[in-house]
TrEMBL record, chains A, B:
<feature type="domain" description="Transcription regulator PadR N-terminal">
    <location>
        <begin position="7"/>
        <end position="80"/>
    </location>
</feature>
<feature type="coiled-coil region">
    <location>
        <begin position="105"/>
        <end position="132"/>
    </location>
</feature>
<dbReference type="Pfam" id="PF03551">
    <property type="entry name" value="PadR"/>
</dbReference>
<keyword id="KW-0175">Coiled coil</keyword>
<dbReference type="InterPro" id="IPR036390">
    <property type="entry name" value="WH_DNA-bd_sf"/>
</dbReference>
<protein>
    <submittedName>
        <fullName>Helix-turn-helix transcriptional regulator</fullName>
    </submittedName>
</protein>
<dbReference type="InterPro" id="IPR005149">
    <property type="entry name" value="Tscrpt_reg_PadR_N"/>
</dbReference>
<dbReference type="InterPro" id="IPR036388">
    <property type="entry name" value="WH-like_DNA-bd_sf"/>
</dbReference>
DNA sequence: AACCACATGTAAGCAGTTACATGATTTT
DNA sequence: AAAATCATGTAACTGCTTACATGTGGTT
């Protein structure tokens, strides 16, 4: 799964600009895929050259022009090649987890700060996912609801466990260093 | 967090070869960090040149020689620079989740297969984590136990939710297409 | 006979990031 | 006056992957 595959997937739903695509990613695929403009724009240009997508320049007043891309037949074929390929194993780079593993090399205060920081982040993400789940504007198909539900379950578990860990830490852990 | 930082972290615990480091990663950091030999060996060579680590060649009989690396003072400083830098946001590339989102473009059979496949994978990973948690040979510090506990909680939630989803799918979902 | 574990390494390539450049409009 | 939103793009770089090369000894 690379940028191209995900871009084709969203263009299958509706024609969009690179700018739109990035915001679509951020809204609908948090914790699934990240892409910066530096990836999206060059990828779109390459895809257009290869005939996977076609550009339509939309003139706007007071705003820069938009390049609206729509998927071609060749693009649809490329998407189906992806969707029928074997699922790639997930890859995670979870710095917070690494910090935990290396926790013995920092102070208890530092560790607690990290825990609280991560909890804050997880909670924020969870709120986003839930609001998306309840939003009737995004007319999700059942599959998208499934993905959302799966994501929420995992996120919720992370929040709960972190809360427990922080609780224990504040009630027992800190004392060990304090005395 | 890049390869170098994690390598320094494990060398802080014990001197190791590149081969050992990879296996250490796989055992202790599943779902946190992945690195292939193609990353590890060149990184180790670069780090040696920069004076972060030092090599000791251990001759072995019947086996190839080993390059055992140990961390230097400069290496320890580099590790502390990492551990005191702000935590990087986690990055995930979760193909399975993407497939779910794009699920409407495939058959119900395909979707169910994906769900079962992912459940199998998650369960396998969970078993690994649990066996590590119970293994007294790896004398973990409290922080490592915390990391493990956090990882297990998330993994367990994924397994449970997927099982529910598959259950519902087999009892209701399939009928819609079958009749 | 084939394959896996042990052990290290190189070369080519790729996907993606960061930082920069441009520039109007709207909000704080 | 400053910052954010809208909108696209390039150039330099980096971190990593894939595939290959090499070779012994033990297992199936």
């Amino acid at each position: 799964m690379k940028g191209q595959d995900v871009i084709l997937g969203v263009l299958l739903e509706a024609p969009m600009s690179g700018y739109d695509i990035k915001h679509y990613f951020e809204k609908h695929f948090p914790d699934m895929f990240v892409a910066s403009f530096g990836t999206i724009y060059p990828t779109l240009n390459r895809m257009e050259k290869e005939g996977l997508i076609e550009k339509e320049i939309v003139l706007q007043e007071g705003k820069p022009n938009k390049n609206i891309y729509h998927i071609t037949e060749i693009g649809k074929e490329a998407f189906h090649a992806y969707i029928q390929s074997p699922i790639e194993p997930k890859t995670i780079k979870y710095d917070f987890m690494m910090r935990l593993v290396f926790g013995r090399y920092v102070s208890q205060q530092q560790l607690l700060e990290w825990l609280k920081q991560e909890l804050h982040q997880l909670k924020e993400d969870l709120v986003k996912l839930r609001s998306q789940d309840e939003d009737p504007c995004d007319c999700y198909c059942d599959c998208q609801k499934l993905a959302l539900r799966f994501g929420i379950a995992i996120q919720q578990a992370g929040v709960t466990e972190l809360e427990n860990i922080i609780d224990e830490f504040e009630n027992f852990g800190q004392k060990e260093t304090a005395f």
